[in-house]
Design brief:
Elements: E1 3-5, E2 8-10, E3 31-41, E4 50-59, E5 70-79, H1 85-99, H2 112-129, E6 137-148, E7 152-162, E8 169-178, H3 187-190, H4 196-210, E9 237-239, E10 243-248, E11 261-266, H5 282-286
Parallel strand pairs: 5-6
Antiparallel strand pairs: 1-2, 3-4, 4-5, 6-7, 7-8, 9-10, 10-11
């Protein structure tokens, strides 16, 4: 999700400390410090092989103590084998659509160089409009493989951006995919029919336990913003080795100060709701 107000770019992303103090009193407008590397991910023979690709590029003197640095940093997996080419293509396309989505929400860049050039250009336009503008900009995107099993692969896509204001903006998306077809896994694919009410009840108990909210206390009194003060599991979820992880981004159900909220509903808690015909790994099912 991307927000744009006038020329000030507000981008969602991962909540992390800004990497260093990228600053310069008289910014050098020549992009530099580019680094692209890859690392093979070791996995068992029957799981999806991938390597992680790293890309960084900056503009300005990012080693000084004043302001005026612009930085782009990316890290993402590239899938190779042993799946069918069509499935590998689907998964790599999912990753690339996230990594290369333009920060203004207009579409996709043709590559990382083009993406960085546009981001740097928007900063220069801001400086032309406001000559004394020296705020550092930073955009970080990372895709992480949460689960890599013969039947299921889960991805966590995170973005952090700071383009001025009180603080940066962040967002994280979760998703799981069938390795046989590349299709995104829905809750209805792994749970029995009419699961929703029971799952919500189990989820609320887990939520209250994790954030130490007494059963008789309203959620709004505890500082949360659920609609009509009724708990609902997030539609942002993925399969992990321990259970289902549900994620709420900043401002979604709580103030920014609460950060990103991650709730894990363990498989042992929803054992009776799991569909034995689901695409979950048999080894996971045996442990329940």
């Amino acid at each position: 999700m991307t927000f744009k107000h006038k020329r000030r770019l507000i981008l969602p992303g991962m909540i992390i400390s800004l990497l260093g103090s990228c600053q310069s009193s008289a910014p050098d407008t020549t992009p530099k410090d580019q680094s692209t590397t890859s690392r093979q991910q070791s996995v068992s023979p029957d799981t999806l092989v991938n390597r992680y690709q790293d890309f960084t590029k900056s503009m300005g003197n990012c080693d000084s103590l004043s302001m005026g640095c612009v930085r782009v940093e990316m890290r993402y997996p590239v899938f190779t084998q042993p799946l069918e080419d069509s499935v590998i293509g689907i998964l790599n396309d999912v990753v690339q659509r996230f990594i290369l989505a333009t920060h203004d929400g207009a579409g996709m860049a043709t590559g990382l160089e083009t993406f960085s050039k546009q981001f740097f250009n928007d900063y220069q336009i801001m400086q032309e409009d406001i000559p004394d503008y020296r705020v550092n900009w930073e955009l970080i995107r990372r895709v992480e493989v949460l689960l890599n099993l013969p039947e299921v692969i889960s991805l966590k896509s995170m973005e952090y951006a700071f383009t001025g204001g009180a603080h940066g903006m962040s967002a994280t998306r979760l998703a799981s995919y069938r390795t046989e077809t590349g299709e995104k896994i829905k809750l209805s694919d792994i749970l029995l029919p009419d699961f929703d009410q029971q799952l919500q009840t189990i989820g609320e108990k887990s939520f209250r336990r994790q954030w130490e909210i007494p059963a008789d206390q309203d959620l709004d009194e505890a500082g949360f913003w659920f609609e009509k003060n009724q708990f609902r599991l997030s539609n942002n979820y993925a399969v992990t080795s321990n259970g289902l992880i549900f994620l709420y981004n900043p401002y979604e159900v709580a103030p920014y100060s609460f950060g990103t909220l991650e709730l894990v509903v363990e498989f042992s808690e929803i054992r009776d709701l799991l569909d034995p015909e689901s695409p979950l790994d048999p080894e996971i099912m045996k442990q329940l």
